[in-house]
Structures are given as structure tokens and as C-alpha cells.
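Holo model, nicotinamide-adenine-dinucleotide. Inputs:
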Amino acid sequence: MPTLTDQKPLYYYNYVGGEWTESSSKEYLESINPATGEFIGYSQKSTVEDIEMAIDSVYDTFQTSDWGYNPKRRYEALLGLAQKMEENMQHLARVLTMEQGKTIRESRLELAGCVDTLKYFAGAARTVFGRSIQLEPNNYGVIAKEPLGVVGIISPWNWPALLMIRELAPALAAGNGVIVKPASLTPAISVEIFKLIAEVPQFTKGIVSIVTGPGRSIGAAMGTSKKIEMISFTGDTSTGKTIMEMATSNIKKLALELGGKSPNVVFADANLEKAIPLIGRSIFISAGQICMAGSRLLVHESIKDEVIVKLKDYAENLIVGNGLLESSDMGPVISQSQLDLIEEYCQIGRREGKVITGGYRLTGEDYDKGYFYAPTIIDELLTNSRVVQEEIFGPVLAVQSFSTDAEALALANATDFGLSAGVWTTDLNRAMKMSKGIKAGTVWINTYNKNFPEAEFGGYKQSGLGRTRGIDGLMEYCETKHIHFEID
Ligand code: NAD
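Output:
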């Protein structure tokens, strides 16, 4: 069977109006395997003109088709895509690992998440209902839920399949037309999924499009387009702020899933046997390039030494390597610039704290071909350190200790982010108090990284706006209309 790299050169096209199209630029984005430097394929480096044509096409299709009024069709389309993805899982996992670098086990996990999300929102497409209310003796209100129109989805490179599907599935389930712009570092996996969309006849031709290209030009054109009613953006907090400014063009609705600096708070009564591997996984999964990474460890001073020794052991036993090898526990980071950024933070960590393990680029033999960084733990950091405050997006754990519950809570809330948190304790009262006190969209008690399409996810503070997943996630993609009847 030919592998992806046997089929050189591999070209990926935009999907617009139900057809595969080339950009007018005749320029390309190149996907490169971050583990090996191998070339993966070319995608369209689209222009503002390309994206405007695509927006017009989705807009016209939305206006003229029955997509917004046909929930059963939407249910069948999303289920059809779920089935296609299941059938092509092996190929997709390989593309995802080769383009993004994550381990093949993680790619399977990400893609299984896509299938689950599609199935959940396929069912949910048939449950988009409002309510009715008697208002006065002769006045009756129907509170209806309607699609918004055209939704633009701008997605990041770290979990490129799931984070696209996480928004695409509810946006389509709610009856919208959708245009997707994936990250420039990972266009291939997104277009591979669109190839499967093209094979599902229940999708109205032209109701969903993908256009690849630079965020600063075509992403910005989506942000300012008056034909797009909503932007669903997942990415960096600073880009989210830029998109908020652009959205003023037509008072666009926004859903923003942004960065994080999530703490794992470990109390003296925690079950460490369970906690250590899950805390380790929470920061080293995806080489730390995950919004909900447990990138801060807050540990009670009485057990700090024990926890550090055990986590050091966990980190040093991880097998870092090419994600395609089943034996790899952690792959490379995405690019040279990401590697440089991580190194910069580790230099700060060396000055302001104590490096317990890692803190260097992995080199020698196959490591030299890719962007591999050692799993890193930095202790003795003060709260105002940039290593504690800023999202590194790399395999770097920042450690601080506390002596009281109040101090633990204050430290947990001491950054501008509020995406998620883990609390490790066997005391139910303490768990309850912490879960109420922590300003984060998700608080996991005695576990971490547990996500489900039916449970809402999103950020407090500068981690975002709105919620994804669950019924609230579906409702983000709806308008609410009050239809009022007065009876004579
Ligand atoms: P990024 O903000 O650089 O890019 C995200 C997307 O925005 C890309 O498609 C990019 O091309 C586009 N973009 C860039 N500049 C733009 C502009 N001016 N106008 C419109 N679009 C523009 O983020 P990234 O580096 O791809 O992803 C990493 C970030 O994403 C991290 O901060 C991470 O925490 C965050 N993230 C958040 C979640 C969540 O659910 N909260 C999930 C995953 C990643």
C-alpha cells in the first residue's frame, strides 16, 4: 500500500461550491513532518479574492437551499461523515501524525473524538427547539431557534482535526452554512477530512467549504466579511483579541476558544498513585501543545519532594521520538520557532527557578532531523515569573507550592487564563470548595483531560468567550427569535 510520502507531490485543493478549486495565487503552503523534515504536501496559499468567492458561494447556497430547514438531512450528513471517518481512520491518523508530529496513538484518540462529536451532533441536529409561552390573555409567544447564516471557523494546528470538527459539527447541526480556514501548518489533515465530506451525498452541495491560506490575510477577510454572521475561533489569545476588533464590522457573533495556563492542585491527602501519571500526561501529551495542558503544578509543601521525585521519574521515562512509531510517548513540537520559544522560556526558568529535569533540545541521530524537546520540570518559581504566567505551548511544567487551602486557591486563580484545572484530594468538602472557587471553564476532580461532546468546554477570563460542546455549544450557533401571536 502506498504511504503518503510515496505519492509525491501531493496537492491539496480548496473545496468551494462543492468543487475542488485552485487558488488564483498559484502559490502553495508546504506541510512538513516536524519529526523528520520530510515533505508531506502542498496546499493552496489562497488570496482574499479566493476567500471572498468562497464566502459568496456558501452565502448563496444557504439562502437558496433547504439546509437550514432540514434537520433530518443534517443528521444524515453528519452521521455519514462520522462513518467515512471511521472507515478511513488509519489513513487519517497517519496524515495527522506526519503533518502535526503527535504520536499515532494520540492521532487515533483525536480522530475517535471527531467521530464521537459528529455522532453526538448528528443526533442533536434533530433537537434544536425553542419554547412557547403564554404572555397575556390574547398574546402568545414562540421562542424559536434559527441558524445564523454563514459561520466562519478558524482553527489552530495543535489538534487540527478535532478542533475543526468540534465547531463544524454543531455549526452544521444548527443549520448554518460554514466556511473553514485551517491553520497554515496543518492544512493537509483538514482537507483530507473535506475529501470525505465531498463523498457524503446528504451534504447540500456548496453548504460547507474549506479554504487554506494565511490567517493574516484570508482569516482577517473572514473576520471583516459582512456576509459572515459568526466567527468561531480557536487559537492564541492575542489573535482572539484581533478577531474581536475585526468582528465590529457587522457586530459579528463570536465564539473564542483561547489559551490556558491550567493548574493541577495537589493536596496532601491526594491519591498520588493515580495523580502522578495523569498530571504527567496532562503536560506532556502533544508535547505540551494543548490548550488545556496542566502546565502549572501547585503542590502542598508537605508532599512536594515526593511529588517532584515521582514526576521527574515519569518525565524521564517517556520515550520521545517520531510519532509514527507505536513506541513513542511524545513527539516533536511543531516548528523551529516553537522550539526557540520553548528554549527562551526555559532560559528564564533557569534564571528564576530550578530545573528539575529537561530544559534542553534533544539532539543526536534522528532527533537532529526534527524539533524534539526534553520533557521539562521547573521548580521554585515565583508567581510573577513569565514561566508561571504565560502559555508556553511546550512540554514545560512550572511548579509552585502552598501551605493552606486559601493559598492554593489564590495561586490557582493567579493568571489571566481560566480554561481548566485539576484538583487532587480525597476530601469531598475541599474538592467542592476548590471547584466553586477556581475561575475556570472545566474543573476536574481527581482526574484530568476528560472531555466529552455532551459536556460544555470553554474559558473564563482571557481563555475565551462562549462555550463549545454540549447543548450550550450547539446554541452558540443559533439565533433566538420571538414570534408573537395576538389573537382577536
Ligand atoms: P493562532 O492564533 O496563531 O492561529 C489560529 C488560527 O488563526 C490559524 O488558522 C491562523 O492562521 C489564524 N490567524 C492568525 N492570525 C489571524 C488574523 N489576524 N486574523 C484571522 N485569523 C488569524 O494559534 P495557533 O498557534 O494555531 O494555536 C495555538 C493556540 O491555540 C494556543 O494559544 C492554544 O492555547 C490555543 N488553543 C485553544 C483551544 C481551546 O479550546 N481553548 C484549543 C486549542 C488551541
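The chain has two domains: 10-258+463-483, 263-452. Residues 154-159, 163, 181, 183-184, 215-216, 219-220, 223, 234-236, 239, 242-243, 257-260, 291, 391, 393, 419, 459, 464 surround nicotinamide-adenine-dinucleotide (CB under 6 Å).
Archived with the compound record.
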